[in-house]
């Protein structure tokens, strides 16, 4: 796989977009062999900011081309801005690098979304608006299109491939296979999906004294017609239960079709299985160290879910007998009847087991996202103009939403800094306003659980360090840089 420095990427960006004369560039630090893209952020002499994404593998190149075609269609059908490619440049090794304008906005932490907030309502409406789109738009763009049964079969095949590595605990395999083989859970209508919803792919309006709302969704490389539960997976796993209620209620009211009753259960499955996907990405890239780290995370998840099952079973067996009557208390009940009543009077009291307290923090702070802001990263931008989502239609009768349970904890490797962003980041550097630009992540969502009172808790155990794309980034002025590693761009196609 070819590697390029930030100055080489700036040269490619200049060749891709007519009139783009770079004045500075910020590169991102590599995050191992499983990294799909090289990303840089370029500012030109007109103070415009750009993002260049250079695929490192044929698979990444294909995803970039497909998502670019889709975004060109969605920009005319969504009321929020999306990262539309402004220029392409051919690469010597094959494929093309894409350049798009740098979207402004503020990164959010899913765990910080408050119940009843405009941000929670806006997120539910944004997802509903996306899922209401005509699937023929996706078909025209050439992205994958699945029906429910085919998608269930695909999930089973993914699990079989992961099981063949010997790295997935038997308990998890049994648990997930049981859910995947229960066909009653998989009777739903597939919809257009984003495929990568999370803290790193949601941009909010600037915090300017008004309640923030969703401004844009970033990171569209996994977009396809598939299970709408895919877009709820991170929300089920990371939002506070009350906040999730708000999102799902807004989502149900804004959907053109009633959400199916097993939507949340499938979303929890997707959230748990995300670790398997990231492990298999590491295996495919030959990253044995990364694959083994994900395997350790899977073992911890298996242990935690097994403990929860034991706690539920123990709670169900607890029996509370009624208090004995006070000595000497008068009773009109004959002794024989009282004895018979006493024999059948015990009742079971199911106590809710306390939530695990050893879960790790689910969402990295200031996580960023991209796409063609499809890979995640962190940065700061000037505040962009607020964009509104599709307005609600006429009020309709309340739609019943499946009861919300506590999020199922899933662990994934997290960076040891609160400002680390996921790999293949598209987020940019600090700017005048201090708002944050986000880009989408190729990596899995992080672990979050809740305490018994519903408040998020974090794991105090040390988490192995995983290098992120944006742990360090350097602004490189492009004046007087003779001798730097600028590679001449290949001829434009």
UniProtKB/TrEMBL annotation:
Residues 321-330, 440-461 have a biased composition (Low complexity). Keywords: Transferase. The keyword Lyase does not apply. InterPro entries: Aminoglycoside_PTrfase (IPR002575), Kinase-like_dom_sf (IPR011009). The keyword Transferase applies. Residues 35-259 form the Aminoglycoside phosphotransferase domain. Residues 309-493 are annotated as: Disordered. One of its GO terms (molecular function) is transferase activity. It comes from the Bacteria. This is 2'-phosphotransferase. The lineage of its organism: Bacteria, Bacillati, Actinomycetota, Actinomycetes, Micrococcales.
